[in-house]
Amino acid sequence: MRLLTGLRAWTVQRASALFMLGFLLWLGAVLLVSPPAGYAEWRAMVARPATGAAFGLFFAALLAHAWVGMRDVVLDYVHHPRMRAAALALVALALLGIGVWVALALAALGAR
Questions:
Q1: Backbone CA torsion sign across 51, 49, 60, 9
Q2: How high is the mean pLDDT of the chain?
Q3: Range of the structural domain that residue 27 is part of
Q4: Residue 82 maps to a domain
Q5: CB pairs under 8 A, 24+ apart, for 70-78?
């Protein structure tokens, strides 16, 4: 059984899009009400546990959304099985690297 086929991929794509939309609306409202004046205030805002968790979930949703989209593009346009596997591996490694980088950055903000 393949992971993220058909309805599962569609559900991940739509759920991640809805979460990201809600997060961006919330962030926009927060920034309209009390915009951070400088780097220190931005950092303090993101370092709060709830806000940091929300940013972490946003990036997780963004990476899941990107994986499903890129996976579909590769499956549609790369027909040779070995090239397809290599392309999917490259996309997965790139997204994993970005995910690790974001997790480390958020952890560093929370630790200070």
A1: negative
A2: 91
A3: 7-111
A4: yes
A5: 70/95, 71/4, 71/9, 72/9
